[in-house]
């Protein structure tokens, strides 16, 4: 992504929706506003189409979106400001640091949409559905908490289903062609582009075992 002109000024203009010291909110996110019923995260939100539309549809849910590329995050934050949303915040950081920002069992749901596939075996640990990341999610998710995963990449999807099963998650709503009978759910920026090109989209929800505990 090209470096944005005036990025600093543009980020400053979005100060109300950007959290610069997220570790200060660890364990206290829901106390930000009394109306928040649950905390949901999005990892790698990119330009934020999904983030902003999902947040607008669910005003009682607190959405926190992580994005490690500031030039993408600024576009997402600007969209949230334009929509006047009061339930979405952005963190400019890497998902590897999630445990520094979120307390154990603080999060109800994690969205991972069109993450980078890192196809080579030696790159496996960078995949956001690799065991290394799943163990991290297990710490911050509530029992029964869910990962909602979408990708256009079939090998990554099959790999992720295996990893969910091997790491204490139960997958449901599994489809390898989500929009076969018409558009379903909120699309991401990448998804809209892939769908226009006629590429099938894979999706599943994976729940962390242990809801009955
Ligand atoms: C292929 S893009 C998809 C963007 C968006 N989710 C969509 O579907 O339109 C992947 C995004 O994830 C971000 N990303 C990749 N790895 C990340 C990580 N470990 N932590 C935070 N963001 C990450 C990238 O910077 C990029 O913006």
Provide a compact summary of the structure.
With 213 residues, this protein is of the alpha/beta class. Helices cover 31% and strands 23% of the residues. The chain folds into 2 domains: 1-103, Rossmann fold, CATH 3.40.50.150; 112-213, Vaccinia Virus protein VP39 (Rossmann fold, 3-Layer(aba) Sandwich).
Total count of helical runs of at least 4 residues = 7
Bound molecules: S-adenosylmethionine
Structural shape: globular
The Rg value, from CA coordinates, equals 17 Å
Describe the fold and architecture.
The structure is a single chain. The longest helix is centred in the middle third of the chain and has 14 residues, at 70-83. The protein has two domains: 1-103, Vaccinia Virus protein VP39 (Rossmann fold); 112-213, 3-Layer(aba) Sandwich (Rossmann fold), CATH 3.40.50.150. The chain has a seven-stranded mixed sheet with strand order 3-2-1-4-5-7-6, sandwiched between helices. The chain has seven helices and seven strands. The model has no long low-confidence stretch (mean pLDDT 96). The chain is an alpha/beta fold and 213 residues long. Helix 1 packs parallel to helix 3 (70-83) and helix 2 runs parallel beside helix 3. S-adenosylmethionine (SAM) binds next to helix 7.
């Amino acid at each position: 992504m090209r470096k944005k002109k005036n990025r600093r000024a543009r980020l400053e203009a979005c100060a109300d929706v950007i959290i610069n010291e997220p570790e200060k909110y660890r364990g206290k996110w829901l106390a930000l506003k009394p109306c928040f019923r649950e905390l949901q995260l999005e990892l790698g939100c990119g330009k934020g189409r999904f983030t902003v539309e999902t947040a607008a549809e669910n005003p009682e849910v607190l959405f926190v979106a992580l994005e490690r590329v500031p030039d993408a995050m600024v576009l997402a934050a600007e969209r949230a400001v334009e929509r006047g949303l009061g339930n979405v915040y952005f963190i400019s950081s890497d998902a590897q640091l999630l445990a520094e920002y979120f307390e154990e069992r603080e999060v109800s749901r994690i969205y991972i949409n069109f993450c980078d596939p890192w196809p080579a075996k030696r790159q496996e640990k960078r995949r956001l559905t690799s065991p290394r990341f799943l163990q991290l999610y297990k710490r911050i998710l509530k029992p029964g908490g869910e990962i909602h995963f979408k990708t256009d990449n079939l090998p990554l999807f099959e790999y992720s289903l295996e990893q969910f099963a091997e790491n204490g998650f139960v997958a449901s709503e599994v489809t390898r062609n989500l929009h076969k009978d018409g558009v379903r759910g909120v699309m991401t920026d990448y998804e809209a582009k892939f769908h226009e090109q006629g590429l099938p989209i894979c999706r599943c929800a994976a729940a962390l075992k242990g809801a009955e505990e």
